[in-house]
Design brief:
- Helix 1 runs antiparallel to helix 5, helix 1 runs antiparallel to helix 7 and helix 3 runs antiparallel to helix 4.
- The protein is an all-alpha fold.
- The chain has eight helices and no strands.
Length: 149
């Protein structure tokens, strides 16, 4: 494989790190006080889910998220932080890539009517797939240093 400036494996590491920075930014810009104390994030998602055209989304949200709004707020916020940090430093990278892909798929499905969210989540999901199948943890990662994966 020919590439300019960096090797193919290094470009995959750049993609992985960029995706990690995107997750970290998703975490950074959240108003955590509003999410944790006032429940704004989950309340907003509940409103979106309640109006969703797919019954599975409405019932799934009501079954999994709605009974535990405070817990789910922490899960969402800190999942984004863990994904960001894991991908940036390349620690447990395949797990982070699959986790991010699943989270993007959930976000994409919930926000199916929001064109901006569809673009962001589909691009992040694509980056996860490329990073996973390109084994982006081979270069510039703790996984590589520790010899895991």
């Amino acid at each position: 494989m020919d590439s300019i400036w960096l090797t193919g494996a290094e470009w995959l590491a750049v993609l992985r790190i960029g995706l990690g920075l995107w997750w970290l930014e998703s975490w950074r810009h959240k108003d955590r006080k509003a999410w944790f104390e006032r429940g704004t994030g989950i309340a907003w998602a509940a409103d979106v889910a309640a109006k969703h055209r797919w019954t599975a989304v409405r019932s799934g949200f009501d079954t999994v998220v709605a009974p535990y709004p405070r817990t789910m707020a922490y899960v969402v916020v800190y999942a984004e932080l863990a994904l960001g940090l894991g991908l940036i430093v390349g620690f447990l990278t395949p797990i982070a890539l699959v986790g991010g892909l699943l989270l993007n798929a959930l976000y994409f499905t919930l926000m199916i009517h929001d064109v901006a969210e569809q673009g962001q989540n589909s691009m992040m999901a694509l980056m996860s797939v490329v990073g996973l199948f390109g084994m982006s943890w081979q270069t510039w990662s703790l996984d590589s240093v520790l010899g895991i994966f």
